[in-house]
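Researcher: Hi, I'm a grad student and pretty new to this. My advisor asked me to get structures for two proteins we've been looking at. I'm not sure of the right format, so I'll just paste the first sequence and hope you can take it from there.
Model: That works fine. Here's the first sequence with its structure tokens right after it:
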Amino acid sequence: LTVGFPGECVAELLGSTPCVTDRVRGVLEVSFGKVAAGTTRTVVVKFTTPGRAAGASLAFSTKLAFTDAVSGERATQEVPGETLKLYVGTEAQNTGQRRAMERSLTAAAAWSAHSARLAIAHNRDGEYDRARVYLHDQLRHFERFCTGLDDSQHLLADFRAVAEAIDFEWDERSRKSMEVMYSKGFGGSRDHRTNRANLCYSITGPSV
């Protein structure tokens, strides 16, 4: 899957699917590997856009290339529809927009999982300050994104719990438990098999 975006934007694939980003060309390429017939894959990309005046537009495009498993032939399929253009609106225009709740919840789940996994990786490397600064910055924007979003309360609660303890040294079991929790929770579903409230507080000592 190739996603074209304005070069001044920053594109970040939320998840562990292999991808290559080229900001010079304004292209993000995602590799899915083998996909069985009748199955679907969800891709969530977070774009950070530059400040622009109301009325300005940002153009995005998508293209899908694949190899047929039966014939072995490679084909390229343009995703239906013209290039997508997003327009910068005023505060009043943005407030009045209808929201696609299901898609927003999927994006929120992917965003929180991706941020937590990166912060846990920093914690594993002993970079506690870096983990704290990164996660608290993400949380600030994430809380705004979740405003008015139904069923996002557990995502916010989990995000805040991780942010609260990320600048302590965790034991490896806690890190792995949290990583598993977030890999299972990509779609916003909760994992009731573990004590989520206590996972991130199993630590070996404060950072120094």
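Researcher: Oh nice, that was easy. Here's the second one.
Model: And its structure:
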Amino acid sequence: TLDIDSDEINSYCKKNLLMPSSFFMTVFHAVLHRLTREDKTLIHFISNGRSELKLANFFGVFVKTLPSVCADFKRPMAEIVKAIDEQMRSTIDRDFYPFSEMVSRHDINVNILYNYFVDLETDVVLDNQAGSNGELNWDTAKNPLSITMLSNEKGDYQCFLEYDATIYNRRDMEILGKAFKCFAENCVKDSYVDTTCVPMLTASESEAI
């Protein structure tokens, strides 16, 4: 868990008409680009899945994991954030695919929805094969790597890193977390600086090197 000062970031987002959510998503893209040296980065973000007005009176879990791609990092941060924000909004607007068409296309047994939402103890049978129930272990990472941004009591941002320990180790995540924090705090100091030039180390760490 990392605490990130919110004052400069909020001022930067307000000045450039940016959403903090899009800002931090872009920071994640940029840091991954710098650490992996990949020209194109792909991450996923969570949507509540309720972009369709027809779902307004429906009760249920419609959360979706949607893609975000960034491929041009040699631009000022504000430009990339605006591009990521437009991409995110466009993706959310198109995230709804009619379940009736999905059922018809893939020959899905619609009783799965009942069993999932209403009665988890009821046996599920699909193609004459009985399904099995399994416990959800919430102590296990749900994705290989995820970043969650929240606000603390002081109004500053808190960054939570969750990772699969069979793929990554704690030291790698500490490096990623510190790079994320430094990039977020440094990129707002100059709206026109190229993202490839934004420091990912503290002043003391740079001096030590």
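Researcher: Is there anything I should tell my advisor about the second?
Model: You could mention this: Strands lie at 2-4, 41-47, 64-70, 125-126, 129-130, 145-151, 157-163.
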